[in-house]
From TrEMBL:
Name recorded for this polypeptide: Mitochondrial ATP synthase subunit G protein
UniProt GO BP: proton motive force-driven ATP synthesis
GO cellular component: mitochondrial membrane; proton-transporting ATP synthase complex
Pfam families: ATP-synt_G
Keyword vocabulary terms for this entry: ATP synthesis, CF(0), Hydrogen ion transport, Ion transport, Membrane, Mitochondrion, Transport
Protein's cellular compartments: Mitochondrion membrane
Stored InterPro entries: ATP_synth_F0_gsu_mt
Organism annotation: Dendrobium nobile (Orchid)
Family: Belongs to the ATPase g subunit family.
GO molecular function, a single term: proton transmembrane transporter activity
């Protein structure tokens, strides 16, 4: 156990040294590559204004999203009414999609518990 702790400490020191050595250049490079997204002057007030703009823009997009949701739902209803015309490929895709959703749910549950497996063993 002590050797693993020592290895972990060594890795942490190496990582912090790497960040200390290369972090500034990475930061500058990142800002240079994305300078078209930087609003001048970069002040707290400007950040608060942009935050409000983002919030109210997303709020204004709700009616469009609402309409899109109902169009998608109508499409699903149409497919369900004509389910006898579905091909095996379409059913396979739907089954894989359902399986993927279930798997993500299970992975989310496991991650939420801190990657521990719990349950009763019979």
């Amino acid at each position: 156990m002590a050797s693993k702790l020592h290895q972990l400490q060594t890795k942490a020191v190496q990582a912090s040294q790497f960040v200390a050595k290369h972090g500034t250049s990475y930061y500058k490079q990142l800002l240079e590559q994305n300078k078209q997204y930087i609003v001048q002057p970069p002040t707290v007030e400007k950040c608060q204004e942009l935050s409000k703009q983002l919030f109210y823009t997303r709020l204004a997009s709700i009616p469009g999203r609402y309409e899109s949701f109902w169009k998608e739902l109508e499409g699903v209803k149409h497919i369900w009414r004509n389910r006898q015309d579905l091909k095996v490929e379409d059913l396979g895709i739907a089954a894989l999609f359902g399986l993927e959703l279930y798997a993500w749910f299970c992975v989310g549950e496991i991650a939420g518990r801190g990657f521990t497996f719990t349950g009763y063993y019979v």
